[in-house]
Amino acid sequence: MSARNAILKRLRERADGPLTAPESDFSVVTQRGWSFDERLARFERWITSVHGEVVHADRGEWCDVLARVLADKGVRRLALGREHPVAAEAREAMADADVELVDVDRDIEGWQQEQFERVDAGLTSVLGGIAETGSLWLWPTPDEPRLISLVPPIHIAVLDADTIEDTFFDVVEAHGWADGMPTNALLISGPSKTADIEQTLAYGVHGPRELVVLVRHANRPAEVFS
What we know:
Layout: H1 3-13, H2 26-29, H3 36-48, E1 53-58, H4 62-73, E2 77-80, H5 85-93, E3 100-103, H6 108-117, E4 121-125, E5 128-130, E6 135-138, H7 147-150, E7 154-160, E8 164-165, H8 168-174, E9 186-188, E10 193-195, E11 201-203, E12 210-217
Parallel strand pairs: 1-12, 2-3, 2-4, 4-7, 5-8, 7-12
Antiparallel strand pairs: 5-6, 6-9, 10-11
């Protein structure tokens, strides 16, 4: 039964009384039961449909893939954290590369102009992905403040393939959002875009014009990366 039909069925059954939502009914609209491969395929299909880019990498070689992405995009100055394993691995791998690594664990007032005018890309980790909508979810920290995913013209997000879940509801339930959230929780479903009254679509007006999702795989067959 589709979600629409489930809702209509409940409305018909309870037309003569107050509408309630038994807990068991949520399984109709939230638990998709997709396999790992189905989640990955759905995530990639939806996020690329809105001009996001997906690049696959083996877990042990992702920094090499990152270096190629930076070269292809012409990135010379990359903003990133220090403490998160993603940032720490990237810093170690690019210590001698022709890319300047920009520290982000500073008071924003001290480098605001630099961030807006002289940073080519921001690199962040993410906590997971959502297959149903092709979205990334992340909780900013002092080590990876939200602005490095919102201000630079290119946002490079590192996503582990096994952290993609079926729906947003599954994410909220599995990770205990009701028990405590940060002041900012970000859901990212593509690069920044906007349209005027004539429906002319423009990218990068209110945020990154490009979003690159680097999906890391562990022990995946070679055809995944082809």
